[in-house]
Amino acid sequence: MRKIAFLIASIMIASSLHAVSPVSASIGRVQGDVKEHSITAIALRAVSEEYTEAWLDAYASDKIAFGEAYSPLLSSVLPMDNPIASEERNSAVAIMDLSTGTVLSFMFRNGRIVAVSTAP
């Protein structure tokens, strides 16, 4: 009887583990299921591309002001090779490149990036 109870408990624990998202010390809980048109999906596409004028056209809310503020930073870190995303929070999402450890936080308004910050 104990063996059966142990087997049932083991199956229940194992089946619930797949639903737990991993947690990163740098960005917190990692998103596993990214919705197609979410800000997370947009941010993951953005960090996977080279930073160019076309990038600004596709992702930035104000091409000129954004470019002046963030070009040095984004030119040096994009594209990321192996990005993961945090859970969205207050129209923002953090992206970490597992290859380099670089973390960028993107703030969004109306599906466009309005600001970027780096982790200390």
Which helices and strands appear, and what pairs or packs with what?
Layout: H1 2-17, E1 23-24, E2 28-29, H2 39-47, H3 53-59, H4 63-77, E3 83-85, E4 92-97, E5 103-109, E6 112-118
Task: Tell me about this structure.
This protein has 120 residues and is of the alpha+beta class. Helix content is 39%, strand content 22%. The protein has four helices and six strands, in the order αββαααββββ. It has helices spanning 2-17, 39-47, 53-59, 63-77, and strands at 23-24, 28-29, 83-85, 92-97, 103-109, 112-118. It has a four-stranded antiparallel β-sheet with strand order 3-4-5-6, with helices on one face. A hairpin with a 2-residue loop joins strand 5 and strand 6. The longest helix has 16 residues, at 2-17. The protein is globular, with a radius of gyration of 19 Å. It starts with a helix and ends with a strand. Mean pLDDT is 85; it is low at 3-17.
| Multimeric organization | single chain
SSE string: HEEHHHEEEE
Task: Write down how many β-strands occur, each being a DSSP E stretch of 2 or more residues.
Answer: 6
Overall residue-averaged pLDDT value: 85
Unreliable stretches: 3-17
Strand content: 15-25%
Task: Output the number of helix runs.
Answer: 4
Major sheet: order of its strands? 3-4-5-6
- Could you describe the largest sheet, including whether it forms a barrel? 4 strands, antiparallel
Gap from first CA to last CA: 55 Å
- The secondary structure category is alpha+beta
**Rg value:** 19 Å
Q: What is the overall silhouette?
A: globular
Helicity level: 25-40%
